[in-house]
Amino acid sequence: AAKGPAPHLKRTGSTATVKTMLLEWCRARTRNYQHVEVQNFSGSWGSGLAFCALLHSFFPDAFDYDALDPGDRQHNFALAFATAEERAGCAPLLEVEDMVRLAVPDAKCVYTYLQELYRCLVAKGLVKTKKR
């Protein structure tokens, strides 16, 4: 009998590698946005502005980023999630109320949402990926 994992189950990158790449992508897309410094998948997303900046970098006509208030978390999350759903076709995997209730967002939830957003942007042809 064959030993080791089935060939069709082999991964091309570890989870840590994928997480690092996604974080670097988010950091690069939001680099020049005021009040945003993406360092992780939790506290960096707490005001909702990182989500807004990420979406604004793809859809600059969707809203006026400079008019956003870092303290208005409810509005920022609602705007970001609605824009992601309308413009990118991203499923609403996060609830505004849940995000506002937590002082620091759950890293697993944020990571999962960003993976889905990335997948949707790739599907729309807005993010280019390297061919394997």
TrEMBL record:
The answer to whether UniProt assigns keyword Phosphoprotein to this entry is yes
Query: Which InterPro entries does the record match to this protein?
Result: CH_dom (IPR001715), CH_dom_sf (IPR036872), F-actin_Monoox_Mical (IPR050540)
Q: Which UniProt keywords apply?
A: Coiled coil, Phosphoprotein
Domain Calponin-homology (CH), which positions? 16-122
User: Which Gene3D superfamilies does the annotation name?
Assistant: Calponin-like domain
Keyword Coiled coil listed? The answer is yes
Q: Which family does it belong to?
A: Belongs to the smoothelin family.
Protein name per UniProt: SMTL1 protein
State the organism's lineage.
Answer: Eukaryota, Metazoa, Chordata, Craniata, Vertebrata
